[in-house]
Amino acid sequence: MAPVSTSTQSESSRTMGQAAFISAAESKMHTARYQNISLVLAIKPASLDPRAFDVFHKVMQTVKSAQVVGNLNQSFLLVYVCEPICISQNQARAIHFSIRHFFSEVKQADERMYRFLISGKVGVSVLGKDTHSMKRAVVHASQATLAQQAGHKSRIQFYDTDLQLTIKRYVLLEDLVRDAIEKGAIGVQYQPIIRCQDWAVAGYEALCRFNLDAALNATTTELIGLAEDLNLISELDLLTYQNAFSQCAPWLKKSGRFLNLNLSPNTQQSLSEVLECMVLLAKQEQVEPRHIVIDMNEVKSPAARSMSQRYSRSFVSGAYSLRWTTCPRDSDWLTY
């Protein structure tokens, strides 16, 4: 059932028709001065009557991610979403986040409207993916709703079916990574590090491993990137340290070799707190500082790089050895 409108019937004209929507959305898209994800959503609720357009228009005025709203032939509600992204951000995640953020804002503004919008079908066209034309994007989004099979569980359908599969895979991997970290189900693989002077094994690099089905064809690098996207990378690092210390403490004392640990600065958490936790974990397993080398890897943003460099200078004065490297995890740099 459509939401009950408190507006008069004459106010329904406030919701833009197709032509006005396309013109306004094109203007927004061309004036954006930042990297962004641009989407057109065509929403076809289970039932739609003229009163719904008034309520939709009123609620959308409080939803910041809805840049432009309108309707198509009084059959579809149209929304243009334009979300800023980082240059290095995963595109699938950015698209997934933009849609989720829009519906989250709607739910916060008016839960009844949220339930109304998700009662039917939602078609999505991604500018720059399936088309570069706003006019075609509106057509693609509306066509995507028609592509959904009756009884299909997914309410959201992309016009680009390959993109649909990519995002479904991304969401699945995101859930698996989150679940593995929350349960502490992280393995560790040890990569020998060779000393160039005499080609002897000087130490081992501790590399995290996810125990996922090989059919997913997911690399460790991809899964680490997902952990960074989810802001769980520090938890992943600390789980790896904990497992490595408990497994390696005995032979580190006997062999005198070092354990190389990776530290990601691409986190919203304080690096000082992460390193302090690492020190506590080492003390619990009686691993001496001289046996630990820390690599800070792949900084994605200039701000994170500056913060990491400042902190590395203060931390290196302690008993631990800290190295700065731009080598990605699992690279073959000095490893075999």
TrEMBL record:
InterPro entries under this entry? Answer: Cyclic-di-GMP_PDE-like, EAL_dom, EAL_sf
Output the Gene Ontology terms for molecular function: cyclic-guanylate-specific phosphodiesterase activity
Q: Which Pfam families match?
A: EAL
Location of the EAL domain: 170-336
Q: What is the name of the protein in this document?
A: EAL domain-containing protein
